[in-house]
Amino acid sequence: MLKKIVIFGVGLIGGSFARALRQAGAVEQIVGVGRTAKVLERAKELGIIDVASTSVEEALRGADLVLLAAPVAQTEVILKSIKPYLQAGTVVTDAGSIKGEVVTTARAVLGDKITQFVPGHPIAGLEANGPEAAIPDLYVGKKVVLTPLAENSAADVALVAQAWQQCGAIIHQLTPENHDAVFAAVSHLPHLLAFALVDDIANKPHADLLFQYAASGFRDFTRIAGSSPEMWRDISLSNQGAILTELDAYIAQLTRFRAQLAAGDGLAMQAMFANAQQARQNWQRSIETAEPQHQPDGDK
Ligand SMILES: NC(=O)C1=CN([C@@H]2O[C@H](COP(=O)(O)OP(=O)(O)OC[C@H]3O[C@@H](n4cnc5c(N)ncnc54)[C@H](O)[C@@H]3O)[C@@H](O)[C@H]2O)C=CC1
Ligand SMILES: O=C(O)C(=O)Cc1ccc(O)cc1
């Protein structure tokens, strides 16, 4: 049982963490800290947090666990605000979609107190944002990747893992570097492709006509283009190197495909489609086995 948790950024991810822990009866008091009073007050109205705090000092007093759940470029400003009031018994974690730069920032800001920072990333989410989108079962059966640091104590890592397990999540561990390379390929690139495709179509002079006839294939491919622009700006810039690597590989793939199409090489095209179809079917089967409640409309 956690006596007090503090959430910086009570949106989809922070709010769902709060709702899940409350539903599990795993926490006594939930304090929210926000960028704007309005969002925080809404989170309180919705019953997600008990206290909408305007004082970091007060918020951190006696806290067992602090979760950073704001866009990743906010990490520095939030950790700087925390550091003077961070007591020895408090563990800090985060939910950011990238880990390398978060860890670098945390080391620079926290200094000796880096021992208390256990980085994490829930692999569950939606294209919706804000406290209204928060749901208690977002993490049920989903992975949470922790990227513990050599300086972390086993007890602090266990505390963070247990909190996510109380939310129904399954704990995995990666190094920050492996984490960022993996998610550049299977999360960051797909989001950026979806944004780029919708932007491209929206900028065409006959966009209205095109959108009028866009159907379920378009909806499936582009659902994630409804995600937060600020969050994806921060992820892109923070994981620039790994994303550029994946983008270059994808551009090369498109260039190969373009040449096949231009040459009318149906055999080569069909071979690529068949390989992708098989891989997609295998992935779908494995994810349905591992996450039986998997929904087609979102990673929830
Ligand atoms: N949306 C998703 O599907 C997933 C997001 N993440 C990560 O979780 C984090 C939060 O994402 P969401 O909950 O989706 O975003 P969100 O937009 O729903 O919530 C973020 C909240 O942080 C607040 N905020 C911004 N700056 C702040 C600051 N300096 N101090 C305190 N609060 C601040 C915003 O007002 C907002 O309420 C991001 O780092 C993102 O990379 C991780 C997994 C999935
Ligand atoms: O909406 C979806 O399907 C997602 O893929 C959500 C998501 C977004 C960012 C993450 O770091 C993890 C999960």
Automatic annotation (TrEMBL):
Ranges where the Prephenate/arogenate dehydrogenase domain occurs: 3-291
Keywords: Oxidoreductase
Oxidoreductase listed as a keyword: yes
SUPFAM superfamilies, per the entry: 6-phosphogluconate dehydrogenase C-terminal domain-like, NAD(P)-binding Rossmann-fold domains
InterPro entries: 6-PGluconate_DH-like_C_sf, NAD(P)-bd_dom_sf, PDH_C, PDH_N, Preph/Arog_dehydrog, Prephen_DH
Pfam families registered for this protein in UniProt: PDH_C, PDH_N
Protein name (database record): Prephenate dehydrogenase/arogenate dehydrogenase family protein
Taxonomic lineage from the root: Bacteria, Pseudomonadati, Pseudomonadota, Betaproteobacteria, Burkholderiales
